[in-house]
Amino acid sequence: MKYNLLFLFTFFLVLSVSAQIDSENKSIIIPAEEVEDPKEDNELIVMPEPKKSAELDEEAENEIVLPKVEKLPVAIRKDFSMIKENKFRNPAELYQKRLKNALKLKNDDERKHNGSEVTQFLGEYSTKAKRVNVIYRDHQAEDGDLIRVYVNGQIMQMRVLLQNHSKGFFLTLTPGDNIIEFEALNQGTSGPNTAEFQVLDDLGKPIVTNQWNLATGVKATITVIKAREED
């Protein structure tokens, strides 16, 4: 009898606990309510008010206007050609032209009162040297002075351009007179034809030092006498 009561008690206790668990797992379902679409409700949509003309004018005045970008003109590139005239000049040609103008012979009017118009005799000098060194230079500004040199009537130097540095030649003396002539071929760009010259013996000692100042076509002469050697 006791066992039967205990069994029944236990059976009802299990049923009671199981019922409580089931009741806790059950959720309450709340039905959804239908809500009207806010787009369909004109009261929820706030439309902006149209702007007045005064406000539009004020905004137009305050609007920043960027300056227009203008394209700069581009020079047309021309093809380079060495054939076309006046497009390319050889610097050497320009220099030669200037030099020719500087060295050209002057006419009679230009020669007047520009240096000696008669032969300049620069003296006679005696030496025992067998050979002398004749040197000359333009001791003033280089302006294109030209000379021709003769010895005893024979051309020794056909055409010499005088410059500030010395030029010259060696001359083997013949017994007696050795006549040296310097002829002015022009007067350069600032006449007259001017130069300084020296005649040195075979030891380098000067026999004579002098200058000439000539018009075009005029000569300066000097005589070097070779003395006889004593026995």
Q: Which CATH architecture of one domain would you pick?
A: Sandwich
What is the general shape? elongated
Order of helices and strands: HHHHEEEEEEEEE
Low-confidence parts: 80-87, 105-112
Taking all residues together, what is the mean pLDDT? 75
Number of H- or I-type helical stretches: 4
For the largest sheet, list the strands in their spatial order.
1-9-6-3-4
How big is the Rg?
A: 61 Å
The biggest beta sheet is recorded as: 5 strands, mixed
Helix/strand structural class: alpha+beta
Oligomer: single chain
CATH-defined topology of one domain:
Lipoxygenase-1
Query: In percent, how helical is the residue content?
Result: 10-25%
The N- and C-terminal alpha carbons lie at a distance of 192 Å
CATH class of one domain: Mainly Beta
What fraction strand? 25-35%
What would you say this structure looks like, in words?
The protein has 231 residues and is of the alpha+beta class. It has a domain at 108-226: Sandwich (Lipoxygenase-1), CATH 2.60.60. It has helices spanning 2-25, 53-62, 91-103, 108-111, and strands spanning 120-127, 131-137, 146-151, 154-161, 167-172, 176-184, 193-200, 206-214, 219-226. Helix content is 22%, strand content 30%. Strand 3 and strand 4 form a beta hairpin.
Give a quick set of tags describing it.
30% strand; five-stranded mixed beta sheet; 231 residues; 4 helices; alpha+beta; Lipoxygenase-1; four-stranded antiparallel beta sheet
